[in-house]
Specification:
The chain contains 2 helices and 2 strands. By secondary structure, it is α+β, with helices and mostly antiparallel strands. It has helices at 21-26, 56-70; strands at residues 2-6, 13-18. The radius of gyration is 14 Å and the shape is globular. Helices cover 29% and strands 15% of the residues.
């Protein structure tokens, strides 16, 4: 499963996650937040962060494709 996280205005792909099938089959739900914190408001690194695409070139390509889609 591929998940795209967009800016509030929907014009920019901010993050991309690629989840393996075995992970999707294992969980019942998943909530992703931009700045995750624990119950005491301390920043945390969520388990799903390991599936985040951090390659800037990939993110730039996704944004280029997305801009072509929304500008049609």
């Amino acid at each position: 499963m591929v998940c795209f996280c967009f800016s509030k205005d929907g014009k920019i792909v901010e993050r991309i996650y690629i989840f393996p099938k075995k992970e999707i089959e294992r969980v019942k739900s998943l909530a992703m937040v931009k700045n995750p914190t624990d119950a005491h408001r301390n920043p945390i690194v969520p388990q799903y962060e390991q599936y985040r695409i951090t390659d800037e070139d990939e993110l730039n390509r996704a944004n280029k494709i997305w801009k072509n889609i929304i500008n049609k």
